[in-house]
Design brief:
single chain, two-stranded antiparallel sheet, 9 strands, flat
């Protein structure tokens, strides 16, 4: 009876293992599974591919996670142990509570105060909602540049730029008369030679949609280019 029960459990474990392997291999993010001793027992194909690109050719199963990822801090290792001890998942993403109050702007631009549940409030209620950031938060996060402007994605773009400088030299008429030339000038022009700004983007003066009413959108924009021009003007 015990033997039969063990065989059934073995079959069930293999089915669960196959299901887990199939599930994590369908994901493009890097995933690994460890046992209570923090030995790696499973890695998905995405992580295996990344590790191979870094030069790991051997089978990493049964290796301690600290051997494979020696840069992990003691705090992270303790978090792994905490999961097996408490069953509480690790939060590996940055979490932030923004200062401010609950509310929104209505269709006419007036501020409507609410509580944490979205119900209208007569007084301001301080925000206590934390926000987790992941690799998609820049695109799909609440208030991202693709979902509408918000404080997190807006910053001052005060700037001072040296737009254009031209230096020229005109040769003396007395000298030019000897070679039968009326005018001879040399010049050098520099554009966008210097920029002073606290803006963290690529260029505070560019905009994704160009010359339109939608200004200030910075997304894969090209900066203003620095250029130099040298020339000669000659008149006979």
């Amino acid at each position: 009876m015990n033997r039969k029960h063990s065989e059934i459990n073995g079959e069930g474990n293999r089915e669960l293992e196959n299901l887990l392997s199939t599930t994590i291999n369908s994901l493009s993010v890097w995933i690994h599974v460890v046992d209570p001793d923090l030995q790696i027992i499973m890695m998905n194909d995405a992580l295996k591919g990344m590790m191979k690109s870094l030069g790991f050719r051997e089978n990493l199963n049964k290796k301690k996670i600290r051997e494979v990822f020696p840069f992990l801090s003691r705090k992270v290792i303790n978090e792994y142990h905490k999961v097996f001890k408490t069953g509480v998942s690790i939060v590996t993403e940055d979490v932030k509570v923004f200062e401010g109050v609950y509310g929104y702007l209505d269709a006419t631009g007036n501020v409507v105060l609410t509580d944490a549940n979205g119900a209208t409030s007569a007084t301001a209620v301080a925000n206590t909602t934390s926000v987790q950031y992941n690799k998609q938060s820049w695109r799909a996060g609440n208030g991202s540049g693709f979902q509408g402007p918000s404080e997190y994605y807006v910053e001052k773009t005060d700037w001072v730029r040296l737009r254009e400088v031209t230096l020229s030299y005109d040769f003396p008429k007395a000298l030019l008369s000897k070679i039968k030339v009326k005018n001879l000038s040399l010049f050098a022009t520099g554009r966008n030679l210097w920029l002073k700004t606290d803006y963290t983007g690529i260029d505070p003066e560019t905009s994704l949609v160009g010359a339109s009413n939608a200004q200030g959108m910075d997304y894969f924009n090209m900066p203003g280019t620095k250029s130099y021009t040298f020339g000669l003007k000659l008149t006979f």
